[in-house]
Amino acid sequence: MIYKRSSALFAEAKKYIPGGVNSPVRAFKAVGGDPIFVKEAKGAYLYDEDGNRLIDYIASWGPMILGHAYKPVIDAIIDKAKKGTSFGMPTEIETELAKLAVSMVPNIDKIRFVNSGTEACMSAVRLARGYTGKDKIIKFAGCYHGHSDSFLIQAGSGAVTFGSPNSPGVTQGTAKDTLLAAYNNLDEVKTLVQANKGQIAAIIIEPVAGNMGCIVPTDSFIKGLRELCTAEGILLIFDEVMTGFRLGKGGAQEALGIDADIVTFGKVIGGGLPVGAFAAKTEIMNHLAPDGPVYQAGTLSGNPLAMSAGLAMLTELNTNPDIFDSLAKKTAFLHEGIGKALSKKGVPHQINRFGSMVSVHFTDEPVVDFASSAKGNNERFNTFFHGMLDQGIYLPPSAFESYFLNDALTYADLEETIAAVENLNL
Ligand SMILES: *Cc1c(COP(=O)(O)O)cnc(C)c1O
């Protein structure tokens, strides 16, 4: 494939935007080469600036679960835009989206909208601290909760891709309140809780991790976390920015059968516009300003365009919940096909999957946490990534990211993708 125009646009972008991108993982640093500049997208396909068509497995990192430029979402945005795009005053549509989200997700009574997953997780932790009167939090190595200071401690996603797990600019004072444990390791969490007894406000986790590849929690781990939190008066925060409205109407809480105390959202809930949210039972949410003392605000929070996109998206998912099953089946089909193709070549690999999230790791060992994910063969991953891209298949440009399937993908697309793996020389 030819990427002449993309490369020229990248060179120009680098003059004015740090690294040429507004979010680091887009820059292809991990896999080498220049990033692709997208011109437009429809359904399961991206069309780049050189006229190439790519089958998309990223879905804008999750939001476009029904495919790109999904008509009901686009129509809702256009209709709203004609009536004004921001007021700084309450609007009815905020309540409509809140009501729908609360009806779909178990265990939440109230929800506050923000503009990104980062803001949602940052605010959820502030609320947990304000509610419990405690300072420390526990997070898991390789989990990504956005780029706010407290979370840039062995974070996943772009933060590990670039080998700078502890970003300069995060003060020691902030870092000392973030305790780290390995994913799927309940004993480590218990040890931390004992050593910091009475000081921990919250444990925050990606209930199915998607920022170190896709990593599924063991039953005993996730149940054990819930029991431990209840016993110790610690709030369990499920960061469902990726899993919310993707693993089912009720997200990971429903899929795993675990109730969290605070849940954060992003990605799908905005239908492709910038929306994040955090939610909990009334008793906890009432601690937020203006009802309570925990401050949180946003000029563009609950923005009418963003709310209309989110409402159209969630309405589709709520009225057609078969979509989640259909997506999971497509993902299983892809998993099986890629697995067979790699086995036939004798390439050591692991494929992790949950619902419509899946990741391919070039290693012999089961991938259950950040350390095992990091053992993947990077050189082979890069060959795999570029070999697929050259055949028109757009996979995440980092071994630490999950694929996110969208419902516009057809079985013909999946077969084309599997055939592309068969063609690779790994
Ligand atoms: C993407 C992501 C975030 C951050 O969301 P942004 O909208 O990029 O700020 C937080 N948590 C998880 C699990 C994510 O996948």
UniProtKB/TrEMBL annotation:
Record key words, sorted: Cytoplasm, Isomerase, Porphyrin biosynthesis, Pyridoxal phosphate
Annotated CDD domains: OAT_like
Annotated EC: 5.4.3.8
GO molecular function per UniProt: glutamate-1-semialdehyde 2,1-aminomutase activity
Residues modified to N6-(pyridoxal phosphate)lysine: 267
Entries under Gene3D superfamilies matching the protein: Aspartate Aminotransferase, domain 1, Type I PLP-dependent aspartate aminotransferase-like (Major domain)
InterPro entries for the chain: 4pyrrol_synth_GluAld_NH2Trfase, Aminotrans_3, Aminotrans_3_PPA_site, PyrdxlP-dep_Trfase, PyrdxlP-dep_Trfase_major, PyrdxlP-dep_Trfase_small
Catalyzed chemical reaction(s): (S)-4-amino-5-oxopentanoate = 5-aminolevulinate
Alphabetized Pfam families for the sequence: Aminotran_3
Biological or metabolic pathway of the protein: Porphyrin-containing compound metabolism; protoporphyrin-IX biosynthesis; 5-aminolevulinate from L-glutamyl-tRNA(Glu): step 2/2
Subcellular location(s) per record: Cytoplasm
UniProt main location, coarse: cytoplasm
Cofactor(s) essential for the protein: pyridoxal 5'-phosphate
Top-level taxon: Bacteria
Family: Belongs to the class-III pyridoxal-phosphate-dependent aminotransferase family. HemL subfamily.
Oligomer and partners: Homodimer.
Protein name: Glutamate-1-semialdehyde 2,1-aminomutase
Gene: hemL
